[in-house]
Please model this.
Amino acid sequence: MAISFPSTEYFEALKAQMAANEEKFRRLGFIDTTFGVTVGVNGKARNFVLEFEVFDLKNVSEVPAIDLKKVDFQIEGDSRVWREMIENIRRNGEADSSHDINTLAHFGERLKIVYDDPDGHDKLYRFMESIQEFFDLSSKVEVSFN
Model:
């Protein structure tokens, strides 16, 4: 059964895959960050807060708005961009270099990175490989789009 993106269920499915692939994440090192994901859908935003601790996604919640003082950073983009990334992951098993978060966020053209504190922004790059691997787990989940 396909899991709808964006949704809490989508991130929970990736959380389950992360646990099933724990050894891969252990090799990458710990990931201690809380960040927001904003997906623009038909002029409205769906906002999620993901709390990572050590090698696990501890909590995911949908929120009305993301408080930049309570997250390290926020990744925001239109649903078309997120869909393009996830479909690319599904085709290739992982994001290719044109569809990874780093490339899509370069110059803030496709995805935008927003932050309140430069130290929080630094965590995106410190944990980028683990964050991308987390999203690459979309290759193991059947995803549908609204």
